[in-house]
Amino acid sequence: ERGGGEGGGGKEGVLRDQQAAASTSAPTAATAATTASASAHPSTSFRGHAMVMVHAHPKFGGSPDMMHALAADMASHGVQVLNLSLRGCGDSGGANSWVGDAGEVQDVVAAADYARTTLHAAHVHLFGYSFGATVAGAALDARAFISTYTAVAYPLGHWWARGFFGLGAKLMMHHHTHELKQSIKPKLFLLGTRDDFTSRESIGKFASHCLDPWSLKVYPGADHFAFVSSPWAEEVAGDVREFVLHSRGYVEASAGVFRSSARGDVH
């Protein structure tokens, strides 16, 4: 499904098991990131491209570990992957927050900057899962070289259709929706029909209020937690790669607009 909304809508890492672990800095906290190496013969389609992956809520057990299947599949197809550890999670210092206002957005921007300066990526793509999708969305326009955004199981919530989980998400996960809605960069929303927090109708309505271009794909039978393991992880990774490739022409044509709309420092 595709549509448009209103208005037209530094420590060096240690190489191990083909993964380079590196730390990047952000205000008030250090953010640890793992960079999954590309395959020995990376696809030229993704040369110069890197992807920042942002995990689910740390207060509910979210960590970079849950993103390994997705990161590995991406890396096996030649995409450089930076698997971010948000502040207060894993080896990252600092404290995280319930709604993502303690500097988590800055963590995403710091990871994107690392991908640009250290991995020499001309284009950086943001990939957020659950809570990670909310903070990644707020970072989308922070840098002109951030090119696309993917939200997997964005936890919009629902006042009644998803029970306690839906209500909790509705109350906590809307802190960064405005920035995402106002971005003209390509956005992909992925959701399972059995998502525990968000209904198909809710995500469709939200996407329709985002500026062009955006697209939405629904996976029959998948719940909120399905996408980080097989077989869903491989399917999602493939769909995201296709989305990135299809967005290339638009991104290149809009480069000047992206530069003029980049918000610089994120607070």
* H/E series: EEEEEHEHEHEHHEHEHH
Sheet/helix structural class: alpha/beta
Mean of residue pLDDT?
79
DSSP helical segment count: 8
Q: In total, how many beta strands?
A: 10
* Shape estimate: globular
Low-confidence stretches: 1-34, 36-42, 166-171
Beta-strand share of residues: 15-25%
Largest beta-sheet characterization: 10 strands, mixed
Q: State the share of residues found in helices, binned by percent.
A: 25-40%
Order of strands across the biggest sheet?
1-10-9-8-7-5-6-4-3-2
Rg from Cα: 17 Å
Distance between the termini: 34 Å
Task: Please describe what this structure looks like.
It is a single chain. With 267 residues, this protein is of the alpha/beta class. Helices cover 32% and strands 24% of the residues. The chain contains 8 helices and 10 strands. The chain has helices at 68-76, 104-117, 131-139, 163-172, 177-181, 200-208, 232-253, 255-261, and strands at residues 2-3, 15-16, 19-26, 29-36, 49-54, 80-85, 123-129, 146-152, 187-194, 214-223. The protein has a 10-stranded mixed beta sheet with strand order 1-10-9-8-7-5-6-4-3-2, sandwiched between helices. It is globular and about 40 Å long. The two termini are 34 Å apart. The model is unreliable at 1-34, 36-42 and 166-171 (pLDDT under 50).
